Amino acid sequence: MDSKRKLAAVIGAALAPVLAVTLPAASASAHGYVNGPASRQAQCAQGTVPCGAIKYEPQSVEGPKGLKSCSGGNARFAELDDDSKGWKVSDVSRTQTFTWTFTARHRTSNYEYFVDGTKVATIDGHNQQPPQTVSHQVNLGSFTGRHKVLAVWNIADTSNAFYACIDVNIR
User: Fold this and answer.
1) Is 69 helix (H, G, I), strand (E, B) or coil?
2) What pLDDT digit, counting tens, does each position of 42-65 carry?
3) Whole-model pTM over 0.85
């Protein structure tokens, strides 16, 4: 009987690291950003625009809910607030699909979209954990020309949100 217990202990010890890596992430590790059209942090990660630390963690632009900044109030990512940095502008239509990529998923209160500070859409997250990618069809209203879209992912069970700015030319 001792050999069976030892074998069970060895198997359990061998499986523990595998289970730790493959089980769903805890809620504190939620991260996400808009990659289509390419947000400012996506452009940093792709090397389209030279950036600092955000290049390595485009999914980490997290801050308190209710902000209107591209950096989410995070000083480490303040360069995302710099409108003169040379961000690539994406041509979009008045009804545009925005695609979020989540590297760790978190229950969602809602998603909000703003054009130059004016809210144009709120999409209910139904207090659900999103799949790895989520796309929203957003009506950008009567705006035309060059604008900055702020996309916000409001987390359901914390006071934080994730922020992404997308520079667009609305046709």
Assistant:
1) coil
2) 999 999 999 999 999 999 999 999
3) no
